[in-house]
Specification:
Elements: H1 2-28, H2 31-40, H3 44-73, H4 75-81
C-alpha cells in the first residue's frame, strides 16, 4: 500500500506545480502572477525567462516523479496505469 500511496503523492506534487502557475495568473500570487505582469507590461525577456523556467521546472518534476514512481511500484504497474 505504501508504494501506491507514495506514487499518488508524487502525482499530486506534479499537478500542484502545474496548477500553481494557473492560480497565480488568476490572482493567487506566485510565479503565475509574475508571468501575467511581465506579459502585460511588455517585458519580453523576463516573460521568456519565466516561461523557460516554468517549462524546465515542470519537465524536471515530471521526469523525476515518473522515475521515482517506477522505482516504487514497478515498471509493470506503471505501464498498466497509463
Amino acid at each position: 500500500v505504501l508504494p501506491n500511496f507514495m506514487s499518488y503523492t508524487l502525482l499530486r506534487i506534479e499537478i500542484n506545480v502545474r496548477i500553481s502557475t494557473i492560480m497565480g495568473a488568476v490572482g493567487g500570487g506566485g510565479i503565475g502572477e509574475e508571468l501575467k505582469l511581465s506579459i502585460s507590461r511588455g517585458f519580453g525577456a523576463k516573460t521568456l525567462a519565466l516561461v523557460l523556467l516554468l517549462f524546465t521546472t515542470i519537465f524536471i518534476v515530471d521526469q523525476f516523479s515518473a522515475w521515482l514512481r517506477r522505482k516504487l511500484v514497478g515498471e509493470q504497474a506503471f505501464l498498466m496505469s497509463a
